[in-house]
């Protein structure tokens, strides 16, 4: 679809749904006018139109939380855009990774925060913070300080516990707990190496695409 085929509304705008390219995490929804769409395609970073200010803006211009565009898709009617990005930092002005973190309920009971849909990314950010700040008493900081050898030994222990939970009839709940431990410690190893979780997800996507 070409830019000319897009169906802007009466105000010359089209909604843009922004999604993390590698994980599918829904980050935010904003508005684009034709100039913002053109700038997004030309520069490879997201540009939008602020309806409240009546002015264009670039995501990350003041916060540094730039969105690097991987692809832009139009829906079947050409009146909504899906923008796949790699998000630097957080997407929401509240400091949350995503703008969608509050549950809406049918009754008057206030909606509480949703359980994170992408907990691995949240853990990755926590591990990176512990690597940078190394707070006293932090288990992650202690592991990182011990070095890759200790981290790998811990991964070996957790892998054994996963197998034991599966084969020794310890129950599904126990298996889930042990797999969580294993995944967590592999994330610590990736963090120690400075390897983004995104690289593992990209490798999985590459393998899946070959099938």
CATH fold-level name of the largest domain: Helix Hairpins
Distance between the termini: 28 Å
Query: Helix-strand pattern, N to C?
Result: EEHEEEEHHHHH
Q: Order of strands across the widest beta sheet?
A: 2-1-6-5
The largest sheet, given as strand count, sense and whether it forms a barrel, is: 4 strands, mixed
* Tally of alpha and pi helices: 6
Which stretches of 5+ consecutive residues score pLDDT under 50?
none
Helix percentage range:
40-55%
Number of domains: 2
Could you name the CATH homologous superfamily of the largest domain?
Answer: MazG-like
- The overall pLDDT average reads 91
| Rg value | 21 Å
What's the CATH C level of the largest domain? Mainly Alpha
Tell me the CATH architecture of the largest domain.
Orthogonal Bundle
Shape: elongated
Question: Which secondary structure elements does this structure contain, and how are they paired or packed?
Answer:
Elements (H helix, E strand, L loop, with lengths): L12 E8 L5 E8 H10 L3 E4 L4 E4 L8 E8 L6 E7 L31 H15 L5 H8 L1 H20 L4 H22 L3 H14 L1
Parallel strand pairs: 1-6
Antiparallel strand pairs: 1-2, 3-4, 5-6
């Amino acid at each position: 679809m070409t830019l000319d085929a897009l169906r802007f509304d009466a105000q010359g705008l089209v909604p843009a749904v922004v999604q993390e390219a590698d994980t599918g995490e829904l980050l935010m929804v904003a508005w684009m006018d034709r100039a913002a769409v053109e700038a997004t395609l030309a520069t490879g970073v997201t540009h939008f139109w602020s309806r409240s200010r009546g002015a264009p803006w670039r995501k990350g211009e003041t916060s540094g939380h730039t969105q690097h565009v991987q692809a832009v898709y139009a829906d079947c009617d050409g009146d909504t855009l899906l923008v796949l990005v790699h998000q630097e930092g957080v997407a929401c002005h509240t400091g949350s990774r995503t703008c969608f973190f509050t549950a809406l309920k049918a009754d008057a009971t206030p909606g509480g925060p949703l359980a994170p849909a992408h907990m691995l990314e949240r853990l990755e950010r926590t591990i990176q913070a512990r690597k940078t700040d190394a707070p006293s008493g932090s288990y992650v900081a202690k592991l990182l300080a011990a070095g890759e050898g200790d981290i790998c030994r811990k991964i070996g222990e957790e892998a054994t516990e996963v197998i034991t939970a599966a084969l020794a009839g310890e129950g599904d709940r126990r298996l889930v707990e042990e797999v969580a431990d294993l995944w967590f410690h592999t994330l610590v190893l990736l963090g120690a190496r400075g390897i983004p979780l995104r690289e593992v997800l990209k490798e999985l996507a590459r393998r899946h695409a070959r099938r």
